[in-house]
């Protein structure tokens, strides 16, 4: 509007200012970054007033409790806890704490807010405390590489995307030597607590550390925090992992744009592969946000034991039906991990790994005789470029790199071939043009949505409270998310209660099971009830760019809302 | 903030409402779409008050005026015009107009606003007028496929992305038969005017139609409107083409996110190919917005007659220098049309087109002897996958499809090979991991920024005024863009004044020359003065998602600001 344009000084206002926040390396902050830095985060009321920590009932495990108990003799059975209001401010010890924090694994929007949350807790509730940030992920703990975080250091990262405040890494603390290194570090720094911000593996690791320290009578408490854009780290008490909301909205903005493009030009099928390999939550959420014509959900493919041919036929059938309705365009969402959900593809890859490790691949293709009939049939069905990818792109162990397979391009080629067949049969008469997209990295480091910013801040602030109250082996959990922030609950969930075991090399390993898309859950059911309509009618929704103020700016993703029973 | 969250009804507000705007097909509008529909657009004051149309001096042509005069005997030399305030409201005839509008070529954010602009003009200033929308681009004119646009029809498209209100197409009105068809249509509909919204080709076409109608004494006036995200249709009087601002900001959002990702994980070089084949304006603007480590500008490559090896070495040198500074990551921007700017690549492609049209390609590679030494050397330098693409991916005429070459992947492979070489020589010691991205379709149909929304509305409204005042052969031009909207100037520029001729098949053809990146222009010079610093220091800016309200939401792109002399 003219008014705000004028108020804004017209064009001269520029989009990116030259105000430089020097402590964030050498960045030049944009207007939006600057606005976000000073965005004032609300806290749940329980965190704004005196509280006490109340234990719940004794917990058990997600599976094989007897094995989990053996693995965590000190921690097993400990209750989850809740923060509840109380009269006095003196419930928690008046003591200066030394706390370490680490970011583990892939980036997720909001990580910086978890850190600013725990920092602000310490500043406000345990004055004189020290917060160390371990650099570069768990390796930073093992190598004792850290930085002391203060107000000036943290300021430029407030409400900003990325993990670059202290960076992250994918190392794991696994071997006895590595546990010893971690032990040395926490003792050297005299740490009262350690906050591990990570996914399922990292939180499992956090729990192992907590058990180890408890067992060795080391005072350092360990707390976890649920991070992953994939959305597959959640349970009843941990309604969602942070970053999922932002990433899905960034992808949905792009998908919505591509939909409008498809409808405007009327000649392309856009095949969009979305990050999230183990579970299809991102794909499902983006479908709920944008209403594409076709969406492939890995978990459904697995349950129905579909083959690649089944998936191709499903897509082709809809394309043909749309052609009859004179729609020669559309948008198709595909989860990054599709191949992992297709039993026959897994079998083929296993056989290829075996054969290629032991045989030379002759030009005449005699090596193919080593494949089972089913795998040979699938291999021959694949487009040539994918065959080559399977043969050539191998990791250092000689294994096929499934993640590198451009599934969206593979499907375009298979769909094209099938449509050509149907053209010859006379059941399809149009020209098919596929356009491939992969939306991944651009969603991991975006500026967190208001929801992720607030949720993470509460997770971090709450984690501070839990460490302050002497808890260990919990994951920070913020609940009642369908209510206003004011009314959100804050507590900690026993990590052992989220665990099961897997047998690896003859040994039981504790794991936090990934939360897969539930075919009986509300988000999938909502999607399943709509998809036939979306397939043939164009119910496209264009969410547009994430807004930080105004209507809708505080709304959260459909998955969480549906799971919380909010219509 | 808690307050707006509460006001908003908390989570229940949802992100996409079920309020369905039925006339936009079957879409379900998101909150942001709904807010944008009712966004009230300001008009330049000259359009809000009585105005008259004032002629400027006689015009000439951008080149070869004598040839342009021969091609446009009726229009050549006509002045550009300006709207200026006047006392009386009765300057323009009180008459009901019949106007047609058409969208031509690729989508650009803001097209719908041009249409709503001219619609509102007719509603407010020539009451009782009729606006027809030709469907599917120029083919809609030739086939007389149209829809009558009314308030209800237009409403859901206000401030929305895409061209789906009437859709677009790439057909051209070229042959005498096609001109006759257009003639029949405008006469059948008794059109007083036609507004052609398109790029350089479409505006040239608009001018040919204007000349044709004038020559045949047909009353239909023809007006052009500057559309293209590529930003290569502009001149002094037409400061920018619409859509460029939005597309660049969408790409810059993604680039900014990828930068934060690169810095957080510290292990990837992201190679980002950006749409915009003929000119590198988009790449340059995105560089100015985000400050990547490396940016390739096609026009510079062409002027310096760089080879692919030169470009590769330039990238590799910076990667090595960054490695010395312990930065093993970065972001690299590449224009989609890079190959077109490299003389040796053009030569190779021409030779391949020739050879492959006439020779069989033998497996032993004897055909390669037909290549000149220079081309053979380049061919052998290319990664195998690109060699295959050059050999196999051909259009229906047998020509190499340059647009399909994934330049970013090609460069990753060439950079990787060169770095391996330097590793052996000992001058590089790190691991190189390239990640490829192509940002294209997601930028063409986004919700227009405030600037594009306002600019397009003024362009359309102004076009209505020009047609009303009896002008033809002009392109709608809105100027003084560095001032508040209030003070923007509105007028029309003689299309012939933007033209030169090209010799094709022995004949002179009129063309509006594409505006390339000027190596002496302020945007490039600003970039050139900064790039060495950006290469080695990380001056990343993360513009974040486009905001429609608040600070910065009305700011425009750097290219336009620098060209207008706004610091």
Question: What's the topology here?
Answer:
2 copies of one chain form a homodimer.
Chain A: H1 2-7, E1 16-20, E2 28-30, H2 31-37, H3 45-48, E3 51-55, H4 65-71, E4 81-85, E5 98-104, H5 111-125, E6 130-134, H6 138-142, E7 146-149, H7 151-154, E8 168-169, H8 176-188, E9 193-198, H9 200-215, E10 221-226, H10 244-265, E11 269-274, H11 281-290, E12 294-295, H12 298-303, H13 308-324, E13 330-335, H14 338-341, H15 343-358, H16 373-381, H17 384-392, H18 407-425, E14 434-439, H19 441-444, H20 450-468, E15 474-479, E16 489-494, E17 499-504, E18 507-512, H21 522-536, H22 558-563
Parallel strand pairs in A: 5-6, 5-8, 5-9, 9-10, 10-15, 11-13, 11-14, 12-13
Antiparallel strand pairs in A: 1-2, 3-4, 4-16, 6-7, 15-16, 17-18
Note down, in words, how this protein is organized.
2 copies of one chain form a homodimer. By secondary structure, the first copy, chain A, is of the alpha/beta class. Helix content of chain A is 41%, strand content 16%. Chain A has helices at residues 2-7, 31-37, 45-48, 65-71, 111-125, 138-142, 151-154, 176-188, 200-215, 244-265, 281-290, 298-303, 308-324, 338-341, 343-358, 373-381, 384-392, 407-425, 441-444, 450-468, 522-536, 558-563, and strands at residues 16-20, 28-30, 51-55, 81-85, 98-104, 130-134, 146-149, 168-169, 193-198, 221-226, 269-274, 294-295, 330-335, 434-439, 474-479, 489-494, 499-504, 507-512. In chain A, the strands form 4 sheets. In chain A, strands 3, 4, 5, 6, 7, 8, 9, 10, 15 and 16 form a 10-stranded mixed beta sheet that branches. In chain A, helix 5 (111-125) links the parallel strand 5 and strand 6. The two termini of chain A are 34 Å apart. Residues 1-23 of chain A have low confidence and may be disordered. Chains A and B meet through helix 1, strand 2, helix 2, helix 10 and helix 19 of A and helix 1, strand 2, helix 2, helix 10 and helix 19 of B.
């Amino acid at each position: 509007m003219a008014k705000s344009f004028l108020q804004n000084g017209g064009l001269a206002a520029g989009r990116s200012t030259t105000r430089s926040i020097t402590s964030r390396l050498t960045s030049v902050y944009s207007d939006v970054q600057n606005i976000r830095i000073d965005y004032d985060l609300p806290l749940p009321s329980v965190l704004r007033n005196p509280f006490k920590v109340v234990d719940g009932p004794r917990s058990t495990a997600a599976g094989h409790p007897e094995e989990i108990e053996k693995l965590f003799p000190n921690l097993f059975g400990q209750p989850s806890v809740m923060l509840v209001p109380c009269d006095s401010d003196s419930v928690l010890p008046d003591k200066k704490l030394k706390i370490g924090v680490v970011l583990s694994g892939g980036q997720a929007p909001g990580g910086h807010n978890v850190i600013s949350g725990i920092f602000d807790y310490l500043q406000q509730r345990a004055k004189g405390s020290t917060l160390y940030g371990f650099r570069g992920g768990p390796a930073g703990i093992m190598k004792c590489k850290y930085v002391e975080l203060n107000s000036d250091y943290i300021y430029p990262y407030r409400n900003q995307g990325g993990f670059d405040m202290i960076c992250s890494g994918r190392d794991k603390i696994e071997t006895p030597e590595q546990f010893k290194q971690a032990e040395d570090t926490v003792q050297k720094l005299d740490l009262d607590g350690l906050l591990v911000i990570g996914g399922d593996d990292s939180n499992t690791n956090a729990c192992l550390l907590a058990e180890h320290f408890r067992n060795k009578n080391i005072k350092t408490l360990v707390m976890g925090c649920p991070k992953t854009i994939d959305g597959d780290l959640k349970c009843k008490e941990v309604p969602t992992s942070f970053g999922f909301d932002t990433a899905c909205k960034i992808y949905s903005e792009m998908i919505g744009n591509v939909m409008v493009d498809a409808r405007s030009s009327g000649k392309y099928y856009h095949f969009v592969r979305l990050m999230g390999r183990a579970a299809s939550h991102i794909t499902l959420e983006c479908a709920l946000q944008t209403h594409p014509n076709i969406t492939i959900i890995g978990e459904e493919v697995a349950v129905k034991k579909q083959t690649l041919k089944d998936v191709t036929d499903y897509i082709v059938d809809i394309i043909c039906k749309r052609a009859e309705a004179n729609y020669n365009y559309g948008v198709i969402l595909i989860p990054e991990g599709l191949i992992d959900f297709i039993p026959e593809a897994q079998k083929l890859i296993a056989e290829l790994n075996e054969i290629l490790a032991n045989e030379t691949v002759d030009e005449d293709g005699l090596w193919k005789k080593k494949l089972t009939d089913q795998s040979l049939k699938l291999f021959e069905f694949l487009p040539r470029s994918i065959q080559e990818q399977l043969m050539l792109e191998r990791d250092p162990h000689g294994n096929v790199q499934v993640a590198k397979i451009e599934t969206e391009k593979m499907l375009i080629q298979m769909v094209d071939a099938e449509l050509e067949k149907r053209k010859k049969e006379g059941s399809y008469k149009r020209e098919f043009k596929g356009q491939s997209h992969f939306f991944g990295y651009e969603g991991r480091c975006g500026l967190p949505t208001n929801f992720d910013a607030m949720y993470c801040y509460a997770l971090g602030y709450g984690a501070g409270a839990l460490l302050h109250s002497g808890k260990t082996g919990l994951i920070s959990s913020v609940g009642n998310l369908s209510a206003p922030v004011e009314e959100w609950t804050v507590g900690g969930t026993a990590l052992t209660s989220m665990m099961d075991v897997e047998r690896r090399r003859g040994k039981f390993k504790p794991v936090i099971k990934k939360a897969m898309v539930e075919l009986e859950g509300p988000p999938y059911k909502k999607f399943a009830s709509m998809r036939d309509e979306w397939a043939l009618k164009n119910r496209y929704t264009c969410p547009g760019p994430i807004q930080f103020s105004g209507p809708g700016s505080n709304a959260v993703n459909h998955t969480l809302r549906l799971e919380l029973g909010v219509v």
